[in-house]
């Protein structure tokens, strides 16, 4: 069943139950009020039965006793009145119709029970009967017809039934209109998702028309599309850049392999070409590895854990010393911890250290500081050209002074990616006294 129809049915059921309960309460109140009026009139007239008791015990001359009627404004006389003496026959005092005497009425006549009200029938007529004991024994019964009350209640039942049915129908109609209004944004989200699935067009957006939960759903759907579109654009750009960068080493490899296939090639030239092929293969492998690292970093980060930044930097410095033995590394480490992905953070620090070592002359010192706030790496090389500073962390960018050196142009781009994934940033500047200083700012706290 569609959501819109389910909402309309649920609204109709809820309103129907509420109207039904209200109708039941109203019916019970009206019924109790009408029957209560009849009971009150019977009880008031029973109070006038003292005259009957006086005539039965030596008062006025004997004869058929009479129960005085109520005033007309208070309901008039009961339609049926009868005496029930102990062990005697019933004596009608009003209409010549006898009222039913059950076991409970006989108990009142015998003095075993007090007055009570009950329903009964007299020649098919529904009546309300009051049975009350007399002081000298026996009982008197007064009855009033309930036909008019039953007629009013019957009409009231039909009115309430129509009200319940109309309320349910009206609630169903209004619920359908309200559901159409409420479900419209959800339908737009569904239509947008269907359109994207069929056309792969991520440029479609949903108009946010409210500030409620449905509006928030539309806004978050738009945000998800923005993120997805940006991620796909970044992946496409990465593929395009990688294809461009891979073209040169692949072409060089193909050319060298074609030359190496010549059997008349001089052995010295063959050895030189083999060395070139090996270097180009290593460069190509490093480029592919960096491209894969960038692609992996574009995906959502895996589960993070607490990382001791000082320990991670110490291990990275030891690795750099092994890879660049002609460069000295001086580390100042303060205990610090942050939530992050250890291998990604290690890759970023290693890239900074490799970059500093590659730009430092033999015997120079690279100073590394780590602690609360992040990592700082300073080398004593030639520094950074002003034209290179704005593009230093772009993918595949290599400055004019380093193009002859081996490298992929992705190391610093990976550093920026890791910094942003961990809520930080990376900056570069020329240091006082020569060299360059890189600062990897991270949300690390002191231990």
Summarize the model shown.
By secondary structure, this protein is of the alpha+beta class. Helices cover 52% and strands 16% of the residues.
Textual characterization of the structure:
The protein has 447 residues and is of the alpha+beta class. The protein has three domains: 1-64 and 74-201, no CATH class; 203-300, Helix Hairpins (Orthogonal Bundle); 305-446, Heat Shock Protein 90 (2-Layer Sandwich), CATH 3.30.565. It has nine helices and 13 strands. Helix 1 runs antiparallel to helix 4, helix 6 runs parallel beside helix 9 and helix 8 (342-358) packs antiparallel against helix 9 (411-421). The protein is rod-shaped and about 150 Å long. The two termini are 58 Å apart. Residues 58-65 have low confidence and may be disordered.
């Amino acid at each position: 069943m569609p959501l819109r129809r389910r909402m309309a049915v649920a609204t109709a059921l809820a309103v129907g139950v509420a109207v039904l309960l209200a109708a039941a309460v109203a019916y019970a109140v009206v019924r109790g009020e009408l029957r209560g009026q009849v009971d009150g009139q019977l009880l008031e007239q029973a109070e006038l039965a003292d005259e009957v008791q006086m005539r039965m015990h030596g008062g006025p001359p004997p004869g058929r006793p009479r129960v005085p009627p109520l005033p007309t404004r208070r309901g008039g006389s009961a339609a049926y009145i009868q005496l029930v003496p102990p062990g005697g026959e019933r004596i009608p005092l009003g209409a010549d119709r006898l009222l039913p005497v059950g076991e409970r009425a006989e108990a009142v006549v015998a003095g075993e029970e007090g007055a009570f009200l009950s329903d009964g029938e007299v020649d098919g007529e529904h009546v309300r009967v009051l049975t009350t004991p007399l002081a000298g024994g026996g009982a008197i019964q007064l009855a009033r017809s309930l036909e008019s009350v039953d007629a009013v209640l019957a009409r009231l039942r039909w009115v309430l039934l129509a009200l319940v049915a109309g309320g349910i129908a009206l609630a169903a109609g209004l619920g359908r209109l309200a559901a159409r209004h409420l479900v419209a944004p959800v339908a737009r989200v569904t239509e947008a998702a269907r359109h994207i699935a069929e056309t792969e067009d991520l440029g479609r957006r949903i108009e946010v028309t409210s500030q409620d939960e449905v509006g928030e759903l539309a806004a978050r759907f738009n945000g998800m599309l923005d993120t997805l579109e940006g991620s796909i654009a970044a992946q496409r750009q990465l593929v395009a850049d990688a294809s461009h960068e891979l073209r040169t080493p692949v072409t060089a490899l193909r050319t060298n392999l074609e030359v190496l296939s010549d059997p008349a090639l001089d052995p010295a030239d063959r050895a030189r070409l083999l060395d070139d092929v090996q270097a180009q293969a290593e460069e190509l492998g490093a480029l592919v590895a960096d491209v894969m690292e960038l692609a992996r970093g574009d995906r959502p980060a895996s589960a993070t854990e607490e990382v001791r930044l000082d320990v991670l930097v110490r291990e990275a410095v030891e690795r750099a010393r092994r890879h660049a033995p002609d460069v000295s590394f001086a580390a100042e480490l303060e205990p610090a911890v942050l939530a992050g992905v250890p291998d990604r953070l290690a890759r970023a620090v290693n890239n900074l250290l490799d970059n500093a070592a590659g730009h430092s002359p033999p015997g120079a010192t690279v100073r590394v500081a780590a602690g609360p706030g992040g990592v700082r790496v300073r080398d004593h090389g030639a520094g950074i050209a002003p034209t290179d500073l704005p593009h230093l962390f772009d993918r595949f960018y290599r400055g004019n002074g380093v193009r002859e050196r081996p490298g992929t142009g992705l190391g610093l781009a990976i550093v920026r990616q890791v910094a942003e994934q961990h809520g930080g940033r990376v900056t570069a500047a020329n240091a006082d006294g020569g060299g360059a200083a890189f600062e990897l700012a991270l949300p690390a706290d002191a231990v």
